[in-house]
Structures are given as structure tokens and as C-alpha cells.
Design brief:
Keywords: Cytoplasm, Exonuclease, Hydrolase, Metal-binding, Nuclease, RNA-binding, Zinc. With 553 residues, the chain is of the alpha/beta class. The protein has 14 helices and 26 strands. α5 runs parallel beside α6 and α8 packs across α9.
């Protein structure tokens, strides 16, 4: 019997982490992060690993399908907690080394490179990577032999008939796995609402070459830095059009270095030009590569649009090509960046002006159907998507004749078993799951997050209560941040100071009758008096911190 419990990636986009358990051993497939858009200073969010504590000494390892952050980004946090080996394809491990080095856990990490069609024993599991195509080099599906039968996990995939790196989708091997008899298929649900196929990466290269060849000034292409296929094509385009590649942004530099070191990017040394010397180039020879396609404020594209990039200043007639799609929810920010570019006289090219400027790395509905028909699973669990995506993909599997489909979310437990050689799925109890927000590599407590949200929404007030040596009130002073303009609304502050003082006086009188002194009671009286005053004047209560100072006798 095989138990399945996802810790991330089911019921959401990103943070992929799936646990398979048999004979008391756990195999993890991927270990990714997601991002938080609440503006609370959160770096990344990773899965809560509490459910793995019961298997602390019995985690066989982690198997990585490919090198995107939503599949590898949480490994530093996992390896700080559990010392387990990590298997993955060469390019993914190159990126993993970068992340582990940043978190100072690389020295003790056990990273084992895998090759397509080569089986690896991981505890009681046997895992075989299978080549697929995706928007990153070295992407794999996994064929996992378990006690309950053959399990196939597609990873993130698409069917690209003409991949730029020549690493073709191994359709033949997937068909053979279907012939062998696949008990369970996990498959990528991201683009289940998009009909047809996702398109070939090569068409993007053709579209970008047309844009670059027609430009008479500097060109900047904004893209996801991890798309080595596109980086490779842009290098070829630069050579053919007489331009130099100028990496703009840390992420681009990281991926180009890792891709070069792992043999996936063979740019000659004279093709790259350092960003700090970009002004030495004639503008019609500049081909900049920028991160920040989703309008991230600190990324290169937004800084270029604001005129704040330290090395390159865009001028009228320059071209910016957004070789990307807008992730739903990011539209206002992306259009704001596009507006800033247009105000500078920059020519902006997008999927709206050039349809083939970007294709997705995730299979569309027609390709998902094709995968189901290749593998022909007896049971099916859709992965990588919101509940909407998972349910739609489940419906597609039923249409394709899969007899047993189970839609689950993070924390749900499902068992795969066999009855007279017929695999079937059964729901069981849930395991604890959650999201751990981090800042500067450390987890943020729930209370800290609540306070950050409170500060962002209502601001804060700092109250100082000064008492004489005899214990009478001398003064109350209030300083605010993010509450009011203290110069224009001084009357609000004065009234709050008066109300807080009245509350403190009343509390001091009560304490005097009791014959004691209680600073905690004074703190609470000042806090409540301040918050009530602000609520009466402004309609909200800021986060309020009080300190009491007593004069020396």
C-alpha cells in the first residue's frame, strides 16, 4: 500500500511538495516555495514540514523534477530540519547549490545527479526520471515503482516538438510505461482552462528575432531568468543581429552562470557585456535581458521604467519586449510599469502586439489529454493548481476513461492499494499542513505577521507616560507613524494625549485606593485611552505601544 499526502501545490499554484509513504519510509517529490503579495516584508513562503516529524529518521530523500523555485526553493529550510539526500537533474542541482550556499547549508548537503531513463533506488522506492519539455532546461517526469504499482508524476510539462536545446520529450518512454501498466498518474493542471496546445518555444525565438532586427536603438527583453531555452535563443539572435548581451539583474546573472557551468549555455566570452559598462556600447548594439516581468518593485524592469536603474537609462525609441504572460492578479502593477515605459517614449512589445512573443511552459488542455492517453493510468490525482484547476483536470481524466479519479488538496491523505490486481484510491485522515513565511532566512511567527498586517492597515502609536517620584502623572506624549500627518492633524494627537492622561489619572486614583502601584495597569489604561481617542476621531485604532517612566526619588 502507498500513502500520498501533499504538503504544498494542491489547492494553490506554487510551493509544490508531495510526500509518498510506504513501509514507514517517505519519499518527497519536489520542495518548493511561493511568494506573498501582501506587502508585509515576507521573502518567501514554504510548506510547514510538521507532518514529516513522525518520519524524521525515515525520510528516504527528496527527488526534484526540475529547477524552478516553486519546486526547489524550500530545500534550504527542509535540509536545516532533516539531513536527507536530494536527487535531481544536473541543471536543477546547479540551482539548488546556489540556494543552499546562500543559506549556508551546502557543506552538509548530499546532492546526487540523475539521468533520464536511469533508475535510482531511494529507500524502498525505485525512481526513473523521464525527459519532458518545459520552460526550463533538464525537466523530467518521474516513474516511481512502489509496493502498490507503477506511479508516474509528470512534473511540469508541455509537448514541444522542436525544443531549442534538442532535448526532446520522451514520448516513447511514457507510452512504454502506459503499456507496462500505470497504477497512478499525478499530472500538472496549471493550464487546464486553455484549449489546444501551448505552442513551441521556437516560435518565440522567431518573434523576438524580428523585434530585435527591426529595432534601431537599444532593446531590452524581459523574461523569466530560469528559461534557459530563451536565453540560448537570445544569444543566437544577438550574434545574428550584431548586438551584445547585457544581463540586467542578479537573477539573470545567476541563471546564466549556472547554465554555463552545467553545459546548457555556451555563450562565447565576447557575447556578454557587463551591465556597469553598458554606456560604452552604441545603443543599437545593446540587447539587455531583464527580470521583473510581474512588475516586482526591486527587479530590473521596474527600475528601468522608473529611471532608477544604476547602469542603463532608457531613451525614446528604445524597445522593451515583455516575453512573458501576466500572472492573474498582477495586471495593475504590470500595466503601471508599461505606462512608465511608454511615458519615457519607449516602444513596448507584448503578447498584445506580438502574439508569439511568449508561450507557456505548462501543458494546455489538449496536451493534458495527450498525456492521459499516453500513460493510460488506472487511477489519477491532478496536481499543481487551485481547486478549480484540479477539478477541471479530474473531469478531463474521467472523459479519457480513467476509472478512479481523486481530487485532493494540501493535507489530504489518500491510499493507493490493489484489489485483484485492480488499483484503487481511498481517502484517509488529514495531516497537518500550513504555510511558513520567512524573512532574512528565518521563519516569521504568526504574531509578528498579524502585527505587520496591523501596522500596514492602521499604523502605530507610541505612548510615553511620565510619572513623578511620588507616583502622580507628569505628562503623556504620543508619537505616531502611519496614522495621521502630525503637523496638519496636531489636534488629533493633543486630544489623544489628553484622553490617555485622563485614563491614566483615573487608574492612578483606583490604585491609590487599593494602596498599591501597578505599572501594567497603568500601561493598559494608557493604551485603551489612546486607542479609544483615535477611534473616535479617525474611525480606526492604531497598533499602540506604551512605556511608563518614573522619576527617581
Amino acid at each position: 500500500m502507498l500513502r500520498v499526502f501533499p504538503l504544498g501545490g494542491l489547492g494553490e499554484i506554487g510551493m509544490n511538495c508531495l510526500a509518498l509513504e510506504q513501509r514507514g519510509q517517505v519519499l518527497l517529490i519536489d520542495c518548493g516555495i511561493t511568494f506573498d503579495d501582501r506587502g508585509l516584508g515576507i521573502d518567501v513562503v514554504h510548506p510547514d514540514f510538521t507532518a514529516l516529524d513522525a518520519y524524521r529518521d525515515r525520510i528516504a530523500g527528496v527527488f526534484i523534477t526540475h529547477g524552478h523555485e516553486d519546486h526547489i526553493g524550500a530545500l534550504p529550510y527542509l535540509l536545516k530540519r532533516y539531513d536527507v539526500p536530494v536527487w535531481g537533474p544536473r541543471y536543477a542541482l546547479g540551482l539548488v547549490r546556489e540556494r543552499l550556499g546562500e543559506h549556508e547549508v551546502l557543506a552538509h548537503a548530499r546532492l546526487i545527479e540523475t539521468k533520464a531513463r536511469t533508475r535510482v533506488t531511494v529507500g524502498s522506492f525505485e525512481v526513473e526520471p523521464v525527459r519532458v519539455t518545459h520552460s526550463i532546461a533538464d525537466a523530467t517526469a518521474l516513474a516511481i515503482r512502489t509496493d502498490a504499482g507503477l506511479v508516474v508524476h509528470t512534473g511540469d510539462f508541455k509537448f514541444d516538438e522542436n525544443p531549442p536545446d534538442g532535448e526532446a520529450f520522451d514520448e516513447e518512454r511514457l507510452r512504454e510505461l502506459g503499456d507496462e501498466g500505470t497504477a497512478l498518474l499525478f499530472s500538472d493542471s496549471t493550464n487546464v482552462d486553455s484549449e489546444g496546445g501551448s505552442g513551441s518555444e521556437q516560435t518565440v525565438g522567431d518573434a523576438l528575432e524580428t523585434i530585435v532586427a527591426q529595432a534601431s536603438s537599444a532593446v531590452v527583453v524581459a523574461l523569466f531568468a530560469s528559461n534557459v531555452h530563451r536565453l540560448r535563443m537570445l544569444g543566437d539572435i544577438a550574434r545574428r543581429t550584431g548586438r551584445r548581451i547585457v544581463p540586467l539583474g542578479r537573477s539573470i546573472l545567476t541563471h546564466t552562470r549556472v547554465a554555463h557551468d552545467t553545459g546548457y549555455l555556451a555563450w562565447p566570452s565576447d557575447l556578454l557585456f557587463p551591465q556597469e559598462r553598458v554606456n560604452e556600447l552604441p545603443r543599437n548594439t545593446i540587447l539587455g535581458l531583464a527580470t521583473g516581468t510581474q512588475a516586482e518593485g526591486r527587479a530590473a524592469l521596474a527600475r528601468l521604467a522608473r529611471g532608477e536603474h544604476p547602469y542603463l537609462k532608457l531613451e525614446p525609441g528604445d524597445v522593451v519586449a515583455l516575453s512573458s504572460r501576466i500572472i492573474p492578479g498582477n495586471e495593475p502593477e504590470v500595466y503601471a510599469v508599461m505606462g512608465d515605459l511608454l511615458r519615457r517614449g519607449v516602444v513596448v512589445r507584448t503578447r498584445g502586439t506580438d502574439r508569439n512573443i511568449h508561450v507557456s511552459g505548462h501543458a494546455h488542455r489538449g496536451e493534458q489529454r495527450r498525456m492521459l492517453e499516453l500513460v493510460r493510468p488506472k487511477t489519477f490525482i491532478p496536481v499543481h493548481g487551485t481547486i478549480h484547476h484540479l477539478m477541471r483536470h479530474g473531469e478531463l481524466a474521467r472523459e479519457c476513461g480513467v476509472p478512479d479519479v481523486c481530487v485532493i488538496e494540501n493535507g489530504d491523505v489518500v491510499e493507493l492499494a490493489r484489489d485483484a490486481d485492480r488499483p484503487y484510491l481511498t481517502r484517509r485522515e488529514r495531516v497537518p499542513v500550513g504555510r511558513v513565511a520567512t524573512f532574512a532566512g528565518r521563519p516569521l511567527a504568526a504574531q509578528a505577521l498579524r502585527e505587520r498586517a496591523w501596522l500596514a492597515e492602521s499604523g502605530c502609536a507610541f505612548v510615553v507616560v511620565s510619572l513623578t517620584a511620588r507616583g502622580t502623572l507628569r505628562a503623556v506624549k504620543i508619537l505616531t507613524r502611519g496614522v495621521v500627518d502630525e503637523a496638519l492633524d496636531r489636534n488629533v494627537i493633543v486630544r489623544a494625549e489628553r484622553d490617555a492622561a485622563a485614563a491614566v489619572d483615573e487608574e492612578l486614583a483606583r490604585l491609590a485606593k487599593l494602596g498599591g502601584a501597578d505599572d501594567n495597569a497603568i500601561l493598559e489604561a494608557a493604551r485603551l485611552g489612546t486607542r479609544k481617542s483615535f477611534y473616535k476621531a479617525l474611525g480606526f485604532k492604531p497598533l499602540t505601544t506604551v512605556s511608563v517612566h518614573r522619576e527617581s526619588p
